[in-house]
From TrEMBL, chain A:
Residues 1-22 have a biased composition (Basic and acidic residues). InterPro entries: CHCH, CHCHD4. This is Coiled-coil-helix-coiled-coil-helix domain containing 4b. The keyword Cell division does not apply. One of its GO terms (molecular function) is protein-disulfide reductase activity. Keywords: Disulfide bond, Mitochondrion, Oxidoreductase, Protein transport, Redox-active center, Translocation, Transport. One of its GO terms (cellular component) is mitochondrial intermembrane space. It comes from the Eukaryota. Residues 1-42, 102-140 are annotated as: Disordered.
Automatic annotation (TrEMBL), chain B:
The keyword DNA-binding applies. Belongs to the FAD-dependent oxidoreductase family. One of its GO terms (biological process) is mitochondrial respiratory chain complex assembly. Residues 511-637 form the Mitochondrial apoptosis-inducing factor C-terminal domain. It is found in: Cytoplasm, Perinuclear region; Mitochondrion inner membrane; Mitochondrion intermembrane space; Nucleus. Pfam families: AIF_C, Pyr_redox_2. This is Apoptosis-inducing factor 1, mitochondrial. Keywords: Acetylation, Apoptosis, Cytoplasm, DNA-binding, FAD, Flavoprotein, Isopeptide bond, Membrane, Mitochondrion, Mitochondrion inner membrane, NAD, Nucleus, Oxidoreductase, Phosphoprotein, Transit peptide, Ubl conjugation. It comes from Acanthochromis polyacanthus. It catalyses: A + NADH + H(+) = AH2 + NAD(+). Residues 124-139 have a biased composition (Pro residues). Residues 181-507 form the FAD/NAD(P)-binding domain. Its cofactor is FAD.
């Protein structure tokens, strides 16, 4: 059972796990998905990319920011079957730029080179959606 | 870096798929070329795979070999370039040092004259060096590096050479105009720079700071850096987060920034940092500022993020130079280095101040005292640690915790006077007690830096200090203020000034957004956190003032509920990042089960609500982590809740 104590203006309540098992009756105000003031995730409500998303770190603002933005925008709006396959030029430019700053963009080993290109493309598409979901609806 | 990895993982398959598509195309064109004379598709398809298998193989091998060959060539080319570049820089450094040493020998007693001759001497080696366009960048790049070796060499050299080496960057051209000028090179400024670059493609941003360092984060200076096992931590300034991942306190390495001379011409813009320069005058009508070396920079949009200067106790200021020499006002990297040095040599250190900084330093030094026998004393006027933040019962609990970290806590202590006797400091308290110590650290608050208010005609707030700005962080038409120096209007919580790291990030980011055309008010509530050793920590949001009525809901803590476990889960040491780093791949190593810690006191973990007129205006998550979004939501709603226990249920305090 929960115990309540008052120390001057401060109230102290101790609760056991059972006390908190029943769902909360506290009411929260409904979220407005189009609230202009809210911090947005990676994808804005109008479908555009939020370059200022903290999740991107310094990618869009660093020395290769322009190349990154070009490549990622192209990928985002790509309607090809293999998403982004029409963006080779942009990705190449970005990769070239990033190689000039190895301190900022450490080159990863391609450990999973066994995967077929189809699988990887699907996964990257799914990843992008999951990324979006996580950021817009932060887990509790 | 984690974010990098996620994005990279997404892009890598594309690069791969693109190359396979490429190869397929090549093969297809090869095949088609071979088949142009014949034109019966059906027949071709049936013979295709079998008959032309040999050609396929040849093409794959050729393309593969070409790729590998070109990559290896590029790699070696870059390596060779880097080596040549390094050699060039070393050459130039030694050359300029030699010339400055010569000058210093002849004009040692007149530092001004030295600087004047320096400005003349340096342009000579620079044009000498080479006509190639690359040359301006090595001297400029070295500007940031000599600042560090210059500091290290300072004790051994005479006073003339250090200003000489520092003035070599001074003689380099300061840009006369920049579209975005950020005054101050701290957290808020860096966040704004990042925001501007993200939103305005090709933006040119100039940061002007009077510190010699590139932008860095302050929280590790009083926490993680002290727990490092690396003896060279004062040089590297790298700290290991709980999960073993290391990072530097600098937001970005020097290669992220461009040189200030290249700012105007850089094709895609960039962020340039002018270190060691102070803005002394601001002409709002003319949209320009003047630096301490009389150069002027005009701007289109300006951010003031000058932070503040640590406050000192009047009794110490009046006590004379001997006492001042043994006192540290802790805020910057150099203060950390100094205090680290003192902690290794002194026998006793006293921290005056019982707030965040004082308590964190006390705990950090207390941990050191276990190995070295250093006496760590903390004194403050309140009844317990964090007395102005935590309700009394929790403040008392915290004080016991701090004592267990090896700190001698003297509460309800008001300093009457400080004297220096026999090379030791004597602190006389108002109630008659006497404390003898070797060194004092004063952590008694921050004085916001509003030096530019007069020349710029900016309003200063009399209640909270700092520049008065509106909800969009704007002071006047082209001037914004962010970070510790901004007294802003918070739509939910009213006018306030916040001195925390996450606020600097949030307000800096917001100012950057507004400088690039958004008109967003301060809405996303920033949070803050504090750790008192690795076993107890809390995250908080909103107005957390112990004078407000509070409601605390607690459960018993287990060993799983420690800051260590929280950062292990999220993979970061900077707690405000644990929310946004959610998107990164989880780096968790399994936490080996530890026997549950027995708490004789009850406040293991819980949630504390701070109320103002029955509305929750502040929340502390006590040893409960990764639930800040819920807390943020409750504050944002600003509703009156009849039963706060019901609200507490939303936090699942019994779960991990």
């Amino acid at each position: 059972m929960s115990s309540v104590r008052q120390e001057g203006k401060d109230k102290i309540i101790f609760v056991t796990k059972e006390d908190h098992e029943s769902p909360s009756s506290a009411e929260l105000v409904e979220e407005d998905p189009n609230d202009p003031y809210e911090e947005r995730g990676l994808i804005l409500p109008n479908g555009e990319i939020n370059w200022n998303c903290p999740c991107l770190g310094g990618m869009a603002s660093g020395p290769c920011g322009t190349e990154f933005k070009d490549a990622f925008s192209c990928f985002h709006y790509s309607k090809e079957e293999v998403k982004g396959s029409d963006c080779l030029e942009q990705f190449r430019a970005m990769q070239e730029c990033m190689q000039r700053y190895p301190e900022l963009y450490p080159q990863e080993d391609e450990k999973s080179s066994n995967k077929t290109s189809q699988d990887s493309a699907e996964e990257s598409g799914a990843d992008a959606n999951k990324l979006q979901y996580n950021v817009i609806h932060p887990s509790e | 870096m984690l974010k990098c990895r996620t994005v990279w993982k997404k892009l890598a398959p594309l690069a791969r798929s693109s190359s396979t598509v490429c190869r397929q195309n090549v093969k297809r064109t090869g095949l088609n070329n071979g088949r142009i004379p014949t034109c019966v598709p059906a027949a071709n398809m049936s013979t295709g795979p079998g008959g032309l298998g040999g050609d396929n193989l040849k093409y794959t091998v050729m393309v593969g070999a070409a790729c590998v060959g070109s990559l290896t060539y590029a790699y070696f080319l870059l390596k060779g370039d880097q080596k040549r570049y390094q050699e060039r820089i070393e050459e130039i450094t030694t050359r300029s040092q030699r010339s400055s040493k010569e000058e210093a020998a002849t004009v040692q007693s007149e530092p001004l004259a030295v600087e004047a001759t320096q400005t003349k001497a340096v342009p000579e080696p620079v044009p000498e060096a080479a006509p190639s366009p690359e040359e301006p960048s090595p001297p400029a790049a070295q500007a940031e590096q000599p600042a560090a070796p210059a500091e290290a060499a300072a004790p051994s050299e005479t006073t003339a050479p250090p200003p000489a080496t520092d003035s070599t960057p001074a003689s380099l051209k300061v840009p006369s105009h920049t579209p975005y000028l950020l005054i101050g090179g701290g957290t808020a400024s860096f966040a704004a720079a990042r925001s501007i670059r993200a939103r305005d493609p090709g933006a040119r941003v100039l940061i002007v700071t009077d510190e010699p360092d590139l932008p860095y984060m302050r929280p590790p200076l009083s926490k993680e850096l002290w727990f490092s096992d690396d003896p060279s931590v004062t040089e590297t300034l790298r700290f290991k987060q709980w999960n073993g991942k290391e990072r530097s306190i600098y937001f970005q390495p020097p290669s992220f920034y461009i040189n200030s001379e290249e700012l105007a011409s850089a094709e895609n813009g960039g962020v340039a940092v002018l270190t060691g320069k102070k803005v002394v005058h601001m002409d709002v009508r003319g949209n320009k500022v003047k630096l301490d070396d009389d150069t002027e920079i005009s701007y289109d949009k300006c951010l003031i993020a000058t932070g503040g200067v640590p406050r000192n106790l009047q009794v110490i200021e009046r006590a004379g130079e001997e006492v001042m020499k043994k006192t540290t006002l802790f805020r910057k990297i150099e203060d950390f280095k100094l205090l680290d040095n003192v902690s290794r040599n002194a026998k006793s250190i006293t921290i005056i101040g019982g707030g965040f900084l004082g308590s964190e330093l006390a705990c950090a030094l207390g941990r050191r005292s276990a190995e070295s026998g250093l006496e760590v004393i903390q004194m403050f006027p309140e009844k317990g640690n964090m007395g102005k933040v935590l309700p009394e019962y929790l403040s008392n609990w915290t004080t016991e915790k701090v004592k267990r970290e090896g700190v001698k806590v003297i509460s309800e202590a008001l300093v009457k006077s400080v004297t220096c006797k026999d090379d030791r400091l004597e602190i006389h308290l108002k109630d008659g007690r006497l404390v003898t110590t070797d060194h004092i650290v004063a952590a008694v608050g921050l004085e916001p830096n509003v030096d530019l208010a007069k020349s710029a005609g900016l309003e200063v707030d009399s209640d909270f200090g700092g520049y008065r700005v509106n909800a969009e962080l704007q002071a006047r038409s082209n001037i914004w203020v962010a970070g510790d120096a901004a007294c802003f209007y918070d739509i939910r919580l009213g006018r306030r000034r916040v001195e925390h790291h996450d606020h600097a990030v949030v307000s800096g980011r917001l100012a950057g957004e507004n400088m690039t055309g958004a008109s967003k008010p301060y809405w996303h509530q920033s949070m803050f956190w504090s750790d008192l050793g690795p076993d107890v920590g809390y995250e908080a949001i909103g107005i957390v003032d112990s004078s407000l009525p509070t409601v605390g809901v607690f459960a018993k803590a287990t060993a799983k509920d420690t800051p260590k476990a929280a950062t292990e889960k999220s993979g970061t040491g900077i707690r405000s990042e644990s929310e946004t780093e959610d998107t990164a791949t989880s780096p968790v190593a399994s936490v080996t089960p530890v026997p549950p810690v027995a708490h004789k006191d009850d406040y293991g973990k819980g949630v504390i609500f701070y109320l103002r007129d029955k509305v929750v205006v502040g929340i502390i998550l006590w040893n409960v982590f990764n639930r800040m979004p819920i807390a943020r939501k409750i504050i944002k709603d600003g509703e009156e809740h009849a039963d706060l226990n019901e609200v507490a249920k939303l936090f699942n305090i019994h779960e991990d």
